Write the structure tokens for this entry.
Amino acid sequence: MPTPITSQPYGTLPDGRSASLFRLENSNGLRADITNYGGIIVALHIPDRNGILADITLGKDSLEGYLAGHPHFGPITGRVAGRISQAQFTVEGTTYPLAVNNGPNCLHGGLSGFDKILWDAEVIEQDGIQKLQLHTVDPDGSNGFPGTLACTVTYALLEDNSLELTYTASSDKTTPLNLTNHAYFNLGGQGSGDVFEHEVQILASSVATTDEDCTLIGRRDPVVAGFNDFRSPVALQSLDQLVPGNADIHYFLDKGRTTLPELAARVYDPVSGRVLETLTTEPGVQFYASMSLPADGSEVGKGGVSYLPCHAFCLETQDYADSVNFPEMGGAILRPGTQFKSKTLYRFSTR
């Protein structure tokens, strides 16, 4: 029998509202802890090839740790995951300025994006299992974006050992929209060190070129063998260097946007035997090897562990973030009268 979702108090926000922590489990012993503050995946316990569970996501020990600030450990990311160039855009004749929070750009929805709000939460029954459903209504003008946006994100831990994330949204004005989750994975377990031995495969033949500020410039280029071509598995330690061009870059998936989730990427850790397959309906994935974590050890995570550069990787399923400025590159725009729907599966196994 599927295991019911349980919840417990997770702490209090500065304005006095209470956050909750929800535990999702399946009959195979996998479990995910998710809070309705930011929709953060707080922990994800997955067995290795010997059946030993480890938490494979980076994060903080408490709500206070997340409130103090963190480099986007595991939250819902929006309205627009990724960078909007020059922190502005024009839609239907109106120019909208946004917060500048990443070089000259607006990153991950601005200064108070979906990662920093308390979502309404309920447990629903769907497809014979319980799922955690989070909902918010983001007001017109929030972080500079037009339109009142109704958004729902649903999490489920399935019996095939997949963590399923389903997104829906609608808006009463045309607005950029690019939703994802920003989990940092280390298949050896959080705090186990770097991910250089991980073997990465991404089913994409082209990437989104950026300038030196990681600003998207509306250009698509073929992957380069020995550098950012991951169509066949590549051990990260075999690369000469990890730089934004191969370890913080948007990959255009060969299958594009799909109706049902299709395999986008696969990562294997030969030490633990854990395998992560990412399936999505989205047309792209941002691969990030956590290079911007501070080298001085000042980013302290769960259990007092210092997270250093390349101690994790992210596979952020999404569209081209700057579609609003380069519409020929993607379709990350939501118009009135339409509904945004997207699904991503993080499916775990061992070998």
